[in-house]
Amino acid sequence: MENKKENFSEWYNEIIDLAKLSDKRYAIKGMNVWLPYGLKIMRLIDNIIRDNVDNKSFQEVSFPVLITRSQLETEFEHIKGFENEIYWVTKGGSEKLDIELALRPTSESAMYTMFPLWIRSHQDLPLKIYQIVSVYRYETKHTRSFIRVREIHFFEAHTAHVDYEDAERQMSEYMDIWSSIAEKLCLPYNIDMRPDWDKFPGAKYTLAFDTLMPSGRSLQIGTIHEYGENFARNYDIKYLDINGDLKYVSQTTFGLSERLLAAVIGIHGDDTGLILPASIAPVQAIIIPIPGKSFKEVLDYSGKILSMLKDINVRAEIDSRENYTPGYKYNDWEMRGVPLRIEIGSREMESSTVTVVSRLNKKRLNISIKEINNIKNMLNEHDKQLTLNAWKMMEENTVFIDDINNIPMNKDVLIKAYWCGSRECSDALEQKKDVTALGTLYNLNDSGKCIVCGNPGRLSMFARSY
Amino acid sequence: MENKKENFSEWYNEIIDLAKLSDKRYAIKGMNVWLPYGLKIMRLIDNIIRDNVDNKSFQEVSFPVLITRSQLETEFEHIKGFENEIYWVTKGGSEKLDIELALRPTSESAMYTMFPLWIRSHQDLPLKIYQIVSVYRYETKHTRSFIRVREIHFFEAHTAHVDYEDAERQMSEYMDIWSSIAEKLCLPYNIDMRPDWDKFPGAKYTLAFDTLMPSGRSLQIGTIHEYGENFARNYDIKYLDINGDLKYVSQTTFGLSERLLAAVIGIHGDDTGLILPASIAPVQAIIIPIPGKSFKEVLDYSGKILSMLKDINVRAEIDSRENYTPGYKYNDWEMRGVPLRIEIGSREMESSTVTVVSRLNKKRLNISIKEINNIKNMLNEHDKQLTLNAWKMMEENTVFIDDINNIPMNKDVLIKAYWCGSRECSDALEQKKDVTALGTLYNLNDSGKCIVCGNPGRLSMFARSY
User: Fold this and answer.
1) pLDDT tens for residues B107-121?
2) ipTM
3) CB–CB of A63 and B33 under 8 A?
4) Which one of A11, A137, A217, A309 is CB 3.0 to 4.6 Å from A85, fit for a cystine?
5) CATH topology of domain A285-378
6) Which fold has domain A398-463?
7) Which ranges of A129-221 would DSSP assign to H, the alpha helix?
8) Is residue B318 classed as helix, strand or coil in its secondary structure?
9) Distance between CA B416 and CA B459 in Å, rounded?
10) What residue stretches are annotated with the Aminoacyl-transfer RNA synthetases class-II family profile domain (chains A, B) (predicted)?
11) From the CB of residue A292, how many other CB atoms can be counted at a distance below 10 Å?
């Protein structure tokens, strides 16, 4: 296998092939086939997202994939931001369609043409909905599995509120939801307030959750947007308030995508393959029966262990493939990132124990089946350790600089510096080294002199981004 | 509410609106918005399907929605069957695409261009995969929610086998899977071998699962197809057999759609609204606390009942909406088809009981909380009764005729008759009354004289179809 540290891109592509996560040999470049193992992991990620938003009274819906040109054009800034990336349906059968239909690049314009039908009075607010669907972008840039594709597995939450204040409360709630999701996926991140020129088309402001890939390049893995009344005014989304006055709603959105999987693969994996957080591992513990004397009994004993694990809600499986050595199986499951391996031979059977091997630190532990509950703790421990390692890696690759001449030139890192927020100063940094402004760090009131112009600035992040 | 028996179409549309299953006011006719309650029911149906195929070693995948024109045109019969119904993407941004891309009408051509990459030897067979996705048809006919739409929620299983015999075994396995799904949904059906002119484009033969809607019209709710080597020869899907010879695989497919939901709505509902099988009811038991003296204690007691129900895996909720009378709530949940209502007032609280009311027969039962497990049995009983009622309705609306002059002319029914299988005789029946041949009944070797020409025939079904 490729060396992850030295050849990250090659390592990343190789592990996606080896672990059979997705197949990029489909006839359309950038549209990949989700293979069973990759899809299972993504579904477990989806379920974490779903649990967290359901918990906050969001309701799941599903909108059509097609959006008419006139729906899209209702918000001018918005369509302008996407127009070069839209796939257009222009024919039905052999007929030319009267109106061109877009494959959704995102669903504001689909949803907000329905909101006026659903929202009448303040009693209908807040409206909080989400969907998990595919969205489409006619990417002209180089595509990369789970990072930049043309058919994107996408989560989008949309809300409408009585006023800006309530929309701002929603923005805070998103932060809580996000931190809980990121914790489950063991992912480190910064919250960056995107510069005005890089916010979502149509938004008042955009906050992004950015993580760092081992290549030293930044990866945006989530965004939340405050729209204020911007879309409401264009789509005419009004409600009757308590006094009987018609008012525009204020709106927000929250977006996540399959990039969460890209981050999990890239950040946690090692030169042996994937390492999955237990929270999203389709198999959390793989049982390998070791051939030898009384193998039949060993298999029965393995079955018993399997059902004990299922009883305590551990996702476990037995690898009973014939014609494969235990050694082959060890490598195979290590490559697929399973947190714990359980080896069972006649020794274990006779002593009523199992041998547990950690994917992360390779430590072997022989535990009595009376203590099988410990497997749960070991899975939690696995996730904790992954989280620590991941945050540590991000910190080690973040460099604070107070002098533009001290920028590390030889490798990609996250650069932290004071910045006045101007385009000119950001461009100056970009000229010095190929990095762009991710934005100022959210909720940090740490101020200092802009590293470029010396004017008052705030602590900000710069990086080369995916 | 409309009278279901007399105005079925109006009743059907009305209940979909009232129960908020989907919203058809979206900007594109025939592309509807799945609302939370409808989506929840559909997801529960999907899970039943998933459990049943996972159980038979199918693996879930997800293919791109777009298919190139050349992928589609590889199988001539197949494209011919769909060409008038395909939505074509012809532009990306403002550029004209080099090759036109179809929104999948079904996924044979997407999947079978990948199969040659996945199948090398007999060890890779059987290959059994499925996906649950949306498919697209540019319908020119009148659209109808969940029955005929332009964006269809779709399940499709695809298999490849070493030979025809093994593919035929797969066809039998599909029957088992289907009967288990239909049982869960309490749906009656016939298995009809479609006439040659009505089989799936590219198939050797098609077996359809047809049910009867209360309108007297037949509804196809599932199909399985034997492809033999037809697609394999066009897509060049070959494998090395045990002797090292290259052979074509044999293939089959199994398709289901949101029509399952249409059947559930239409067949089980009554003039009060939906009646959902417990197996797919998002809320199986709704708890209504009755206001009165010591209401706070009644609410606490209701909470206790709720957690008891959750402990025995009953999907239960408390309707604690203020400003609504119990009577309003009863009607509301009846309309939404919840199998059991649990009324809790101070009387119930003081006697440590609950009052359970059945949606189906309105019977009231006061049971001790010590017997709360009985709720499970009552839910099973509910599904059994629904199943009996549904099969009875289909039988009562099926008419066997042995004389073409005895066809009931005033209403739509399922017509059972001996038929020689020829197009001419089927057309003769169609001319007499607007019915078409659904096909001969599968696995029935009951033979007799064709009702039209008198030649040897087999027992067959005719109906007006959706």
Assistant:
1) 999 999 999 999 999
2) 0.96
3) yes
4) A137
5) Rossmann fold (3.40.50)
6) Translation Initiation Factor IF3 (3.30.110)
7) 164-184
8) strand
9) 7
10) 24-277
11) 12
